[in-house]
Design brief:
The chain has 328 residues and is mainly α. Helix content is 61%, strand content 2%.
């Protein structure tokens, strides 16, 4: 990126936006065609791209989990959040709408959470205090409604009634299942809960090995085969039929193991604090992209995707390194 400066930055960003538009259209087409019965087309294509496809027909909110141009719905959703940020910055309403649809079609809870947090950060950055107040009220109303739907689906006694429940109710059950399985050990026969789940195992591990909490093993640790050995996540596979794929994913427990306290402080400084003090009306979209990257890291390691890192690395360059003119 060191050939990019203020004179040619706009043209280069047009190229990045073109890539984002291709990704957006592809995701929408993949989801729509999959829903109308052509899922096999994308599975055949991805067989030659992804070494092993997990849960090819899994659904969430009544939609398939798309592969998109990155091969993973979680990272794909974050990519479309970045696309939405660019389209919002360029004030392109049509592509803003398409980007938002692509985020929804990604079925990525990571992307949904990132988008909500970024919305709050944007309001704080731009000092929209009235909207912040209204948003908090709406969030409280939504929270009450979500609790009511969770109470309803937990109270279901008959399988027929459970099968007819709304996809949003199943979505709430997945969130509840995530909490259940990360906190408790559940007997697969009696369903008796004991509060000694993966979260407790991690806490005990670092209590006995405090030195490993200071310095992490780095993000490349996620590529190792023993990535999840610390908590033996796959022992919970028996419950995925009830809580679906999401509840068997406790990646966040490995977060400290990757970065440690020192690494997390550096991440906060470089992706939140320093960008905030360098922020202005011309680079706020890059600040939000860096924020999105670090927030999404709490669930999955987006650094595994070269396509996504093209945009993240460019935002780092624009915040910290880009010269003002060609001569500099």
């Amino acid at each position: 990126y060191f050939m990019i400066n203020k004179d040619n930055q706009y043209k280069f960003e047009n190229f990045l936006i073109f890539l984002l538009k291709i990704s957006i259209i592809y995701t929408i087409i993949e989801q729509v065609l999959s829903l109308v019965g052509f899922r096999e087309i994308f599975l055949m294509y991805m067989q030659g791209v992804i070494y092993e496809i997990h849960n090819a027909y899994s659904t969430r909110l009544g939609m398939y989990r798309p592969f998109g141009l990155v091969g993973s719905p979680h990272i794909l959703g974050v990519l479309h959040v970045i696309g939405l940020i660019y389209m919002f910055y360029r004030k392109d309403r049509i592509w803003m709408l398409l980007s938002f649809i692509a985020v929804i079609f990604s079925t990525s809870i990571t992307a949904y959470a990132v988008l909500l947090v970024l919305f709050g950060l944007y309001l704080i950055y731009t000092k929209q205090y009235l909207i912040i107040f209204v948003s908090i009220l709406l969030a409280l109303i939504l929270g009450i409604y979500m609790y009511q739907r969770l109470d309803y689906i937990l109270g279901i006694q008959h399988l027929a009634e459970y099968a007819d429940a709304h996809p949003f109710d199943h979505f709430m059950l997945q969130i509840y299942g995530y909490y259940e399985l990360i906190v408790n050990v559940i007997d697969p026969v009696t369903y008796v809960r004991v509060e000694s789940g993966p979260l407790s195992l991690v806490a005990n591990y670092y209590t006995q090995n405090p030195e490993e909490l200071i310095f992490g093993k780095g993000m490349m640790y996620t590529f190792e085969t023993r990535h999840y050995d610390l908590v033996q996540i796959h022992n919970y596979e028996i419950f995925t039929d009830k809580y679906t794929q999401e509840s068997s994913d406790f990646y966040i427990l490995n977060f400290f193991e990757q970065f440690g306290i020192i690494g997390i402080l550096l991440l906060i400084l470089n992706f939140f604090i320093f960008p905030y003090f360098k922020m202005n009306m011309h680079n706020i979209h890059h600040v939000l992209i860096l924020n999105a990257f670090i927030i999404s890291t709490l669930h999955y390691s987006p650094a595994e995707s070269p396509i996504l890192m093209v945009f993240v690395a460019y935002s780092i360059y624009c915040i910290f390194f880009i010269p003002k003119t060609r001569h500099q």
